[in-house]
Amino acid sequence: MSTVTETDEILSRVHFDDTGLLPAIIQQHDTLEVLMLGYMDAEALRRTLTEGRVTFWSRSRQEYWRKGDTSGHVQYVKTAALDCDDDTLLVQVDQIGAACHTGARRCFDVDPLNPEVLERS
Asked: Which residue has the higher pLDDT, 102 or 28?
């Protein structure tokens, strides 16, 4: 877990969007499944980095949401990394139970879009 000084340094690097949010991609640490996408403001990111559990800012409820507090489907932080532009976060977790609010293991792959796939030339 990050110390206060390390967390402050990280927060100073982050480029939050115009609404003060940072997209956070959540990935299972051992299988590399992409589980979900959530949003964090500075406080949610600070909590995630210092408490070892993923916290989001709920855009619909306008409140903090620590994954698993009501459902039991907890996300324990294993690693976290900012992308090269410091505007997207990748958090690798140990997911307990479902990640999706629908009860599915992950939010993606429930409605495949079947895009055209080109072969490399």
From this structure: 28
∠ CA 65-16-50, rounded to 5°: 50
CA 76 – CA 54 distance, rounded (Å): 7
Return the structure tokens found at 19.
Answer: 């609404």
Average pLDDT across the chain, whole number: 93
State how far the Cα of 40 lies from the Cα of 106, in Å rounded to an integer: 19
CA distance 60 to 58: 5
CA distances from 111 to 18, 27, 50, 107 (A): 30, 19, 35, 9
